[in-house]
Amino acid sequence: MALTQTRGPSADTGQPALAPFALGFRPFFLGAGLAALALMAIWLGVWTGALTPAPYFDVINWHAHEMLFGYTAAVIAGFLLTAVRNWSGVDTLNGAPLAALVGLWLLARVLFFVPVLPGWVLALVDLAFLPALALSLVRPILAGSNKANRVLLLLLGVMFVANALMHLQALGLSAGTARSGMLLMLDTVLLLILMISGRVLPFFTEAVLACSQCRRSRVIELATFLTLLGMLAADVAGWSQTAGVMALAAALVQAVRVAGWIKPGIGSLPILLVLYVAYAWVVGGLLLKGLAGFGLLAPNLALHALTIGVIGGFTLGMMARVALGHTGRMMQSSRLTNLGFVLLNLGALVRVFPPLVLPGHYTLWVMLSGLLWIGAFAAFVWVYAPVLVRARADGKPG
């Protein structure tokens, strides 16, 4: 299996040559899709008592850690290694170095289930991934003309700190830092999503619909960062009511922000609509988090609105879009991919709202939501695995 880009069809078979490590999105999106399946299946097994939990983290912290630092971190890596190359014009990792970075990410996922290893070994391997990713991006980011992209390195640094906080508790070196680390990672990912979506979602909308320019406001953009940073700081400090106030303010800001981007015709394009539905989860999830901050509903329901609805929706939608665009294919999602979009959002709905009405069936809602998540990513892997491992359809590098 080649580690570098091969141009055009294979001379022997007439089929596209394999190029799974030609650009960062390829192995990391495939790895993320497979991890989404495996991690959720393991979690459901642990939840029902059919499987023994990994010995390093406790049950809840393992689930939170792996969905954020396993699945989500892989999507972030694939996206940044691809986008930074486009933004800067400087090559990011490919070939053997990219394979090594993927191997480091994968090794951490596996080692959590090796009980004979000391905890500090697991921590070092897992903690090494984000700094390695950041180090690989330093040169292309600094070489680019847009200095605003340098904040990406800062965000990766914050994610590393969040991961360290979770490991400190797992190693017995601190008490109560795992939740702070989880919330810090979640809020940082939300900030990254809102930063990236502010750049690409209006562009996607204008380009695909050939419509008038989306409305943008510097005041709203500034308010986006201030409210999210305020929520992040309050979460880390453990000030739940302050975090709730900032979440409510952020929900209002995001409702105004996305209203300026909505154009007629969005509903006719599932690969664009899925991103706007994910943005609706941003507003809804922040509202729920605000209510949870005042004790009006369980915090874990708001948490899953933001994780399944926002992170799941945006990552699944962006992986589908990026994979098509960067392999020279038509920007049109298949029926099976669209089904995956529907299943994921149904999973978010089932995980958040039925427990409010019928909490006595909580285990049922967790299981059903998890199965819908698995169905969504099974559809993604089935459709996109061949796309991600084969060379571009147009013979271009990448």
From TrEMBL:
Top-rank taxon: Bacteria
Residue stretches spanning the membrane: 28-47, 67-84, 96-114, 120-139, 151-170, 182-201, 222-239, 245-262, 269-289, 301-324, 336-358, 364-389
Organism field: Thiohalobacter thiocyanaticus
Pfam families: NnrS
InterPro entries assigned: NnrS
Lineage start: Bacteria, Pseudomonadati, Pseudomonadota, Gammaproteobacteria, Thiohalobacterales
Keywords: Membrane, Transmembrane, Transmembrane helix
Name of the molecule in the record: NnrS family protein
